[in-house]
Amino acid sequence: MLKVGQRLIPSVSGTNWTVDGMITLSMSSSGLSAQMETSPPQIYYEHSIDNPNASNESPYVEFVNGSLALFSNSTTNVSVISVPQASSVQYMKLGSDGHLRVFEWVSGWKEVADLLTGFLGDCAYPTMCGQYGICSDGQCSCPASSGGTSYFKQVDNRQPSLGCSENVPLSCGASQYQSLLELENVMYFTFTSDLDNIDASTCKETCAKNCSCKVAIFQFGLNPTSGSCYLLSEVFSLMNIDKSKIFYNSTAYLKVQNVTNGAPNTSVDNRRSNRLPVILGSSVGALFVVMFLIIVAVLFVRKRDANEAEEEYLDQVPGMPTRFMYDDLKTITDNFKKKAWRSTKVAVKRLDGFGQVKKSFLAEVETIGSIHHVNLVRLVGFCAEKSHRLLIYEYMSNGSLDRWIFHKSNESVLDWQQRKKIILDIAKGLNYLHEDCRQKILHLDIKPQNILLDGNFNAKVADFGLSKLIDRDQSQVVTTMRGTPGYLAPEWLSAAITEKVDVYSYGVVILEIVCGRKIFDRSLDEDDMNLLSLFKRKAEEERLLDIVDNYSEDMQLYGPQMVNMMRIAAWCLQADYTKRPSMSIVVKVLEGVSEVQDGLDYNFSAQPSTNRATKFGQMEVEFSATTALIPSVLSGPR
Predict the structure, then answer these.
(1) Helix, strand, or coil here: 475?
(2) Which residue has better confidence, 180 or 552?
(3) For the chain, percent helix, then strand, then coil, each to nearest 5?
(4) Which has the closest alpha carbon to 638: 222, 336, 206, 383?
(5) Which of 61, 382, 416, 556 has its CA 20 to 30 A from that of 332?
């Protein structure tokens, strides 16, 4: 048990650069934190308590029942840091590298968990690359030279993780010979703003005038003239920004000494004397750049005002989830670095771009924002401010369905009962969209990648970026082609569409779940590449079990059920959409209340004849533009 005022201090080996007692794991009234004991402390991990003063008792953290549990008082467990279930004795240890690891006895002590590691990985530890070292994908290096001058060298060339040292130590008595080395796209493991709403020049100037400042970290969003500045008197491991995880900009300015034996660095002075021609040429170019930026700014303001006017109507739609301002969302998630929001894991989906991206975002918010069903992923909130478009969803711990049916690893195999349950869950979700909502909702992109699974493998329909709302008195709707090749119903090419296009896509997904393969698999023989063609051939041969995924011994026991499930898929795949069942009928069949219709046609791709076929060329172009739309970045748990 670790109580308020107590702390853990790791032992330090003789080869480790860390000062004894510099890393600590401590408990305070506001929560658990791991930090570098500088002045002020530099925190690299924090697990806070909501309303820390709500109880008269001091909080504490305890390694109990296979979990690191944080308690606000003797009876209330505030939160739990998950630890793998113990099969034998376990212990945890704070290492000299700042990691809090859990070990378990399995014919010797084996590491089973690393509790403090966040989504940025090992690079977010202050000791990863030592003082002044820069971490990138687990590799350590020193800051690059500038203008031919190298300011840093590795402490030990054979051990890059020991960090870097200054070639010329900083000296306040020779501050006139100091400069700031700029490192773009470099961030620090922690950030506590000392100055807000400033530009980079002000941040640099403040550090230059402060003798104790060794580095300034400047962070900003889209506008580089309005950011935040963090001044550090002690510098540990820095890291290069991973653009797939970090959505803000960060620049580090390292203070370096241009002094050798008390005299200015002559190479620096020589470079200054040669700058005049460059400055004159740059000034002329800068004039044209300024004029260009003014024009761009005017166009941007006009576009922004148009965007705000179009998106304001979202606030008027009944039942909308919480709408966040971008700055508030950054604060809640600590610049999108926190894994939890209000003690609940969430997934943040970020959309970047214009045009189709905006349509996708608005469609998703308007569609799923006002509906709730156990088999639909819940939208917790959204942000639509200027160019920022973010969707906050409930977190689905088992990811998307394709991971479990297309990847043949021992860790991701579903048995028959699980597959049946998932097929039924999807059907219930689609039935709700088609028949139980105020407006009929066509999803238009049903595929395994858009089916998410929670911790108990309950399936939920997700990603409504291509969905279409139609009134209940409308039986059909004409729209541009949208969706994913292989899952598109044949009527997309020549006729108005109905909710039966979702039924067709659902039929494809049933086959993929039962057979454990993709609709198109180019690794197979040419005759077997297309699952629908193979399905037709095996149905004619009355050998449907030949294409069932051999995922368990269930085939002998459940063979008839598998064949019947494939007949349900065939019913959903009828080329004539009027012969496909509604999703409510599909649910009844799956629950054993009804039976599959006889006389099924296995020629699933037959095209209905219509005089509208001449529009195929135009629709194909629009479809191609839609399928190229992949703007989303799903951050994972936040």
Answers:
(1) coil
(2) 180
(3) 30, 25, 45
(4) 336
(5) 61
Q: Which of 397, 376, 577, 394 is nearest to 467 (CA)?
A: 376
**Local confidence band at 7 (pLDDT 50, 70, 90 cut-offs):** confident
The single residue of 122, 425, 445, 549 carrying the catalytic annotation is: 445
What sign does the CA torsion over 296, 297, 303, 307 have? positive
Could you tell me if 479 and 443 are in contact, meaning their C-beta atoms sit under 8 angstroms apart?
Answer: no
- Lookup: tokens for 378: 């819940």
Q: How many Å separate Cα 230 from the centre of its chain?
A: 26
Domains of the chain by start residue, with CATH = 2-117 (2.90.10), 124-267 (no CATH), 312-394 (3.30.200.20), 402-628 (1.10.510.10)
Mean pLDDT of the chain: 80
Cα 430 to Cα 377, 423, 507, distances in angstroms:
12, 11, 12
Each residue of 176-188: pLDDT tens digit? 889 999 999 999 9
Q: Are 379 and 392 in contact (CB under 8 A)?
A: yes
The pLDDT tens digits for 485-521 are 899 999 888 767 899 999 999 999 999 999 999 999 8
b/e map of 428-444 (b: 16 or more CB within 10 Å)? Answer: bbbbbbbeeeeebbbbb
Q: Contact, 256 vs 166, CB < 8 A?
A: yes
User: Count of CB atoms within 10 A of residue 4's CB?
Assistant: 14
d(CA 352, CA 356): 10
- Cα 277 to the chain's mean position, in Å? 47
DSSP 204-254: HHHHHH-TT--EEEEEESS-TTSEEEEEESS---EEE--TTT--SEEEEEE
DSSP assignment, residue 407? -
Residue with tokens 């238009």: 444
- Cβ proximity of 442 and 411 under 8 Å: no
Helix H segments across 449-553?
500-515, 531-540
**Closest residue by Cα to residue 47 from 83, 72, 65, 21:** 72
Q: How many CB atoms lie under 10 A from the CB of residue 82?
A: 10
Rounded distance between C-alpha atoms, residue 351 and residue 391, angstroms: 8
User: Do 446 and 509 meet the contact criterion of CB atoms below 8 Å apart?
Assistant: yes
Share of the chain above pLDDT 90, in %: 34
| Residue showing tokens 């050998």 | 543
Is 445 a catalytic site residue?
Answer: yes
Structure tokens at 465: 């970026």
The answer to whether the Cα torsion of 70, 73, 75, 78 is positive or negative is: negative
Residue 396 DSSP class: -
Place of tokens 């180019």: 522
Residue the block writes with tokens 């007949």: 567
152-154 vs 249-257, strand pairing mode: unpaired
Compute the average pLDDT of residues 324-353: 68
242 to 31, 120, 135: CA distances (angstroms): 28, 8, 11
Q: In whole angstroms, give the CA distance from residue 331 to residue 284.
A: 41
